[in-house]
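User: Structure please.
Assistant: Input sequence and predicted structure:
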Amino acid sequence: MARLVVFEGIDGSGKTSLSRLFIDHLRAGGTKAVWLREPTDSPLGDRIRRLAQEKESVPPQQELELFVQDRRWDVEHNIRPALGAGATVVMDRYYYSNACYQGARGLDMRSILAANREFAPEPDLVLIIDVEVERALERIGRARTTVARLFEKKEFLEKVRANYLSLQGPNLAKIDGNPDLGPVFASVLERWQAFLERSRE
């Protein structure tokens, strides 16, 4: 059965590593699964990543429009075709990132979510990996040689984290991402099993 599972969280939360572990787990169990990330690997996604690395500031509305264009491409070329083929799609970031990040830059979170839901499939499960900002920045410092200057600043990430924690919905699950990867991934699998059991009822 096709499902859409999204990993979300601030930079340094561990969501990329967790999403990759999760898709390996699904495939090992015989599930047809596709891993995707946003921004995408399209030319537009590459442009977004370059802007994040090179620019101290991009107007929030311009930034949002680039992400939405990239997501429209992703929905058309990747997400809907994979779901239509019966695959479980695992996303490293989705439109919740725009709501929380561009929301932290002054745009309206509800409007961002509503605009994306007009064309993007609603996830079956959204795993929000919550990490203290100081810990996230330590991880970023250890793991990366470059810093996305546009996004990876303490005060800004505190706002983004607060936005994530404010999200509500029956498909949202918040997970403590502060421990090491192993225990956090165990929590991810617990939430996934709980989701599957609810789906069978």
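The chain has eight helices and five strands.
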